[in-house]
């Protein structure tokens, strides 16, 4: 519920050894700014993930969460429905394929971030973006993604991609081998 505790009690609960106590505290919308800062600075990965699931996250809180975040926390943020465009852009350029894939599936990703993801190095990220019901790219970019999905979605294409090649490149190479 929406229970307002005095700040000194919030501080005591914020350092409790029982993670479920701290997680319950984090879900309280009446947390004071000082307690939030303490949790963001010193909280464990699990507690920061719980904090990242709060419906209302300020841009400053999002930045603090992303600073030195592990992949589990980045995945929580990538799925967040009220993520600022600044944080979305950082996650769209993250080295983790899973983070970018989760972001591509997020229906609240801005058009600027969709453009970044449309040119991602991962076929799965591009396909997830194309399948996102909130896709709002230019018609030419949508057409490129649709063509890309068709070329890369068959089981044979996935197998070839895992082996490091393109479907049409391998087909063309095999055709030229049979002609010689």
Can you walk through the features of this model?
The protein has 180 residues and is mostly helical. Helix content is 67%, strand content 0%. The longest helix is centred in the C-terminal third of the chain and has 14 residues, at 139-152. The N and C termini lie far apart (74 Å). The mean pLDDT is 86.
Please give the number of β-strands.
0
Task: Kindly report the average pLDDT value.
Answer: 86
Q: What is the percentage of strand-forming residues?
A: under 5%
- Give the terminus-to-terminus CA distance: 74 Å
Q: Which H/E pattern describes the elements?
A: HHHHHHHHHHHHH
Q: Structural class given helices, strands, pairing?
A: mainly alpha
Q: Give me the Rg, rounded.
A: 21 Å
- How many helical elements? 13
Global outline: elongated
What are the segments in which pLDDT stays under 50 over at least 5 consecutive residues? Answer: none
Instruction: Indicate the percent of residues in helices.
Output: 55-70%
> Could you describe the largest sheet, including whether it forms a barrel?
none
Which descriptors apply to this entry?
single chain, 13 helices, mainly alpha, 0% strand, 180 residues
Please sum up the structure shown.
Helices cover 67% and strands 0% of the residues.
């Amino acid at each position: 519920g929406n229970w307002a505790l005095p700040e000194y009690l919030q501080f005591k609960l914020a350092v409790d050894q029982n993670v479920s106590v701290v997680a319950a505290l984090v879900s309280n919308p009446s947390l004071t700014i000082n307690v939030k800062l303490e949790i963001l600075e010193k909280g464990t990965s699990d507690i920061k993930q719980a904090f990242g699931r709060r419906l209302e996250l300020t841009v400053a809180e999002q930045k603090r969460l992303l600073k030195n975040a592990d992949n589990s926390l980045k995945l929580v943020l990538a799925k967040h429905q009220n993520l600022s465009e600044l944080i979305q852009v950082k996650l769209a350029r993250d080295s983790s394929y899973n983070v970018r894939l989760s972001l591509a599936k997020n229906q609240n990703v801005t058009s600027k971030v969709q453009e970044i993801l449309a040119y991602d190095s991962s076929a799965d990220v591009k396909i997830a973006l194309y399948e996102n019901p909130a896709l709002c790219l230019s018609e030419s970019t949508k057409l490129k993604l649709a063509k890309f999905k068709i070329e890369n979605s068959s089981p044979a294409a996935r197998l070839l991609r895992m082996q490091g090649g393109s479907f049409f490149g391998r087909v063309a190479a095999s055709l030229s081998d049979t002609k010689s």
